[in-house]
Amino acid sequence: MPGFEVFGEEEKKEIMDVLDTGVLFRYEFGEQRKGVFKVREFEKKFASYCGAKCGQAVTSGTAALKVAMAALGVGPGDEVITQGFTFVATWEAIFDAGAVPVFTEVDETLNMDPADLEKKITDRTKVIIPVHMLGAPARIEEIIAIGDKHNIPVLEDTAQAAGCTLNGKYLGTFGRCGTFSFDPVKTMTTGEGGMIITDDEKLWRRMSEYHDHGHDHVVNPGARGGEGRNFIGFNYRMMELQGAIGLAQLAKLDEMILSQKKHKTALKEAAAKIPGVTFRTILDEKGDSATFFGFFLPDGEKAGAVNEILRQNNCGAIAFGENTWHFYPKWEHLAAGSTLSRSGWPFKDQNGKRRVIYDPAVLPQSAAIMDRLLVFQVPINLSGERLAEMVGALEKAANELN
User: Fold this and answer.
1) Crossing angle between the packed helical segments 384-401 and 240-271, to the nearest 10 degrees
2) Which of 149, 77, 160 lies closest to 118 in space, CA to CA?
3) What strands, in cross-sheet order, belong to the sheet with 125-128?
4) Less packed terminus of the chain by CB within 10 Å, N or C?
């Protein structure tokens, strides 16, 4: 990862198709665009690739979450359950929808712990959002079963796991809908951009309208601006240049994953020599997108010692226990209730009463897991020299700790 490593003539051709028409907007301009509708084509091909009926392209993975929650009816007074190891966008989108994020523990899949999920459900829970973090699946079948038991829809945050499968089924197709990110560091990228997939055509229709100011997109004599509106919306439209790049990247996705798998295998073989090492739980090795390689040491002290050796050899790993973007105790703005709103929203209600207070210490299981965890991003294009350097650093760690 990421997909810009393989930008080439395919992306250029798709982009030139758009520039030759002069139409960057995804709707209208029928005669000028000469049948070129890149975003619409990207939606259809991405949904088909995943085995879903409908795709809705948007401006980002964050927007995808917001649009999906709007279509599911999430709003003030609701709670949405997600996990304490995710990118901040997941819970930012929940707040932006007017709801309150509720956080679960993760297990050694590095994803939502179904046992803790069950404990967090209340009569205010509107949606469950498991996140398929770092390119590998959550225990999504168990999570879906819990959601069905309580009649709560599951929205899969698949931002980091495009192309990943579980038992032959693509992530993002287990729940009511699945969201994806195509930002600059994703395995397939459009620079910025996102997608929502679903088999529920009514839900897709709501998303289609909401992401375009509520326009119903019914053909009418007035063309653009003459549509009807069933409800208010906002602007989360993907533009044609992003759709064009997405088409080229999607065609390369399987090959990108194969490359990542090869590199991950080499890293795992080297890391296996480190005393006491264990590996992240991957529920389906065959379906793994291999975007990241995660491994555990017996405790935080040993994880720190290993990473110090790796850093000394120009191959430091990510220690997510220290990471301020992805791990619950490190979100200082969440704990402090920091906001630009003078009223204190979304942390305070209209009367100035605090809606929710987040204690950084409430996810001890996750903290213990993160303390022992080291992670490498897995490049698509990895030179033999750099791979040898990474393998050598892992082997030095193994030798020094033996």
Assistant:
1) 40
2) 149
3) 100-104, 79-83, 125-128
4) C
pLDDT tens for the chain, residues 1 to 402? 789 999 999 999 999 999 999 999 999 898 899 999 999 999 999 999 999 999 999 999 999 999 999 999 999 999 999 999 999 999 999 999 999 999 999 999 999 999 999 999 999 999 999 999 999 999 999 999 999 999 999 999 999 999 999 999 999 999 999 999 999 999 999 999 999 999 999 999 999 999 999 999 887 766 777 789 999 999 999 999 999 999 999 999 999 999 999 999 999 999 999 999 999 999 999 999 999 999 999 999 999 999 999 999 999 999 999 999 999 999 999 999 999 999 999 999 988 999 999 999 999 999 999 999 999 999 999 999 999 999 999 999 999 987
What is the secondary structure of 250-316 as a DSSP string?
HHHHHHHHHHHHHHHHHHHHHHTTSTT-EE---S-GGG---SEEEEE-SSHHHHHHHHHHHHHTT-P
Domain ranges across the chain: 3-252, 253-401
| Whether residue 261 lies in the annotated active site | no
The tally of CA atoms less than 13 A away on the side-chain side of residue 331 is 23
In one-letter notation, the amino acid at residue 24 is L
Element (H, E) at 172: none
- For residue 318, list its beta bridge partners: 375
DSSP 8-state code for residue 352: S
246 phi and psi angles, rounded to 5 deg: -60, -40
Catalytic member of 38, 66, 126, 186: 186
Is 253-401 CATH 3.90.1150.10? yes
Counting Cβ atoms within 10 Å, is residue 259 exposed (0-12), middle (13-18) or buried (19+)?
A: buried
pTM: 0.96
Per CATH, 3-252 and 253-401 having the same topology is answered no
- Find out whether 120 and 104 touch, Cβ atoms under 8 Å: yes
As a residue count, the chain comes to 402
- Burial (CB count within 10 angstroms: exposed 0-12, middle 13-18, buried 19+), residue 359: exposed
Q: What is the CATH number of domain 3-252?
A: 3.40.640.10
Which residues face 374 on adjacent strands?
295
